[in-house]
Amino acid sequence: MAGGGNDFLVFEADGRALREEERRRLSLLCRRGLSVGADGALFLSPSGEGRVRVDYFNSDGGLASFCANGTRCAARYAVRHGLASEPLVLETGWAVIPARVDAGRVTLSLPRLPPPQDPVRVWGEGLPPTGIPMCVGVPHLVVFVERGLGSLPIDTLAPPLRRHPDLSEGANVDFVEVTGQRRLAVRTFERGVEGETLACGSGVVAAAIVAAREKRVRAPVLCDTRSGVVFTVGLPADEGSGDGVTLAGDARELFAAELTEEAWQE
Asked: How crowded is the C-beta side of 180, counted as CA atoms within 13 Å?
């Protein structure tokens, strides 16, 4: 499946039961060129009261608490394949998240989010002196640039910030340019993938909340990503608040297949 440019392997199984060797195999499956290739893997299993549990693994095989684009894909898969019906509720490693599926568009209603943290120092040519940490299930560091986002050398600027010494868990790094009163362009370097992805759902949420809190944009916020897919972030009347935040975007089921042992051959 793919959502906003992030692509995922999807399995109907309980991710909590994975052994270490199976996690290593996931990392091999996620290799591009040598195997199927993916940004990560989703494991979906029935939970109580008609809910669906979602376990998400990054492409390095590491378990992550949340992936917004992955959760949107999980919601569409669950409805399309009869794992659950609407009103749909997904149990992620971060929180219980209601979702609404409208054909290929999925909207997540996120739980109350903590406010952005105090600014931290950032460094790199063309970057401002500070960035804003913001947690949306996983940690993010939001860095605004005045112009030239499309040509910014993220592959060299982001790795030191991804391991920022003031952020104990590290962070996904979101580079953001304001392009209109209700519009942002966002590029994200993701930890666990250790590279730029075509989109990051939690990243555009972090960017929109921080931008609204600083009065840079008004809600709803349209977020352009490298994939060309546009996300919509809905914010409450108090646009800087962490209550009532929604994320809407596409979720596509691309193909179903049977893996051979050569898919995880080293």
From this structure: 9
